[in-house]
Amino acid sequence: MTDERCQRYLEDPEANAGHLETCAECRAENAALAAKSDVDVAPISLDALPLAPWEGSSHRAWPLVFGAAAAVILIAFVLCDLAGISPLHVAESSLSSIEARRGLLRNATEWLRAAPAAMQVAFGVAFIVVNALLVVLLRRAPRGIDA
Prior knowledge:
Distance between the termini: 36 Å
Number of domains: 2
Strand content: under 5%
Radius of gyration: 32 Å
Shape: elongated
Largest sheet: none
Number of helices: 6
Number of strands: 0
Helix content: 55-70%
């Protein structure tokens, strides 16, 4: 194991993987280490790993998204037809319910404007505290699989 090639293999086994074919002593030591550990020592081919989307992967799921959206719209039209109502009537009734929610929100904002100054300050402080907490949580390092 004092050979220079053996030393290079010990420093970087992946780059010098061919050394095991020529050196019986290193091969025996590698087999002894593999027998002691429960880990498989087979090399990992990095070319076989799938690419992440930000690494230039060509697979995109947009056809699936558009197909699912078209299926949902088609089912909605079929259900409207079976119920005997037009999709336009459904859209108009949805807009009226949205308008009712908007009225509730408008009433809540008017109530907050008319509230005492102490309550307005408390609301402002609570708003800042919640948002600061969210910023702190978002800036934390994510815990990965190796954490």
